[in-house]
Amino acid sequence: MSVCDKATYNIKTGDGKFKVRIFIQIANAVSNVNFQVNGTSFAKNLTIDKGERKVLEEVVNASDGMIEIDTECKDNCFYSLGRMNMIQIFPYVKLSHEPSHPLHEGQICDGLVKRGKECENGPDVTHCAFQDNGSPGYKLCNGSVTKVKIPEASTCKDIRGWNICIKNEYETNEAELCGRICGLVGFQCKDLKCVPKS
C-alpha cells in the first residue's frame, strides 16, 4: 500500500483489545510515514531508510467492534507517504507471567537479554527474547543460533515462558557468558554449549 493522500482502512474485529502490527519494508525509496490506529499514534513523521524493515506494534481497544488504521498527517506533511507491506491483528491476551509494567527495549535481565526493535528488525538476534513466535525477528533465529524456551522457574521473571535465541556454541573467551545464558534457560554450559543438566 502506498498513498499520498489520507487513506483509511477499517477492519471488523469485534469488541476487546487487539495487538496490531504494521510491517514496513520498502526496497526502492525512503519512506516518511504517519499511522494512527483507533486514535493511537503508531508513527508520526517516522523516516525509514530504503530497504530498512520496521515493525510498528501497539495494543489498542476496538471501537464499535472495528479497528481503523489511517495515514493522516498533520504536521510537516510535504514528504509524508503512507507505506506498508502487511498488517497483523490478533486478540490480545495478557499472560499470567507478563509484567504489569512495560518492559524497556534494549538489554534486560542484568544485560543478558535483548528485546524490542533491534530484535524485531535483525539481522543479529543473538540473545533476543521473543514473546510471539510469529514475529519477524523470531524467524531469523537459525543457523549458528537456536531457539530455547525460557522456563517458568527462570531467574529473569519478566520473560518467563518466552523464547530466547542462543548460540549453538560459544567462543572460548565467552565461557562466563555461556554459563550465565545456559543458567538462565535452565541448562548448563558444557564444552561451550548449552546442554540439559545431568
Name a few traits of the molecule:
2 domains; 198 residues; single chain; 3 helices; mainly beta; 16 strands; four-stranded antiparallel sheet; Jelly Rolls
The shape is: elongated
Tell me the number of structural domains. 2
Count of alpha and pi helical runs? 3
| C-alpha-based Rg, rounded | 19 Å
Number of strands: 16
Helix content: under 10%
Mean pLDDT across the residues is: 82
Distance between the termini: 53 Å
Explain what this protein looks like in three dimensions.
With 198 residues, this protein is mainly beta. The protein has two domains: 90 residues, Galactose-binding domain-like (Jelly Rolls, Sandwich), CATH 2.60.120.260; 91 residues, no CATH class. 10% of the residues lie in helices and 39% in strands. The protein has a four-stranded antiparallel β-sheet with strand order 2-7-4-5, with no helix packed on it. It has a three-stranded antiparallel β-sheet with strand order 6-3-9. The longest helix has 10 residues. It starts with a strand and ends with a strand. 24% of the residues are buried.
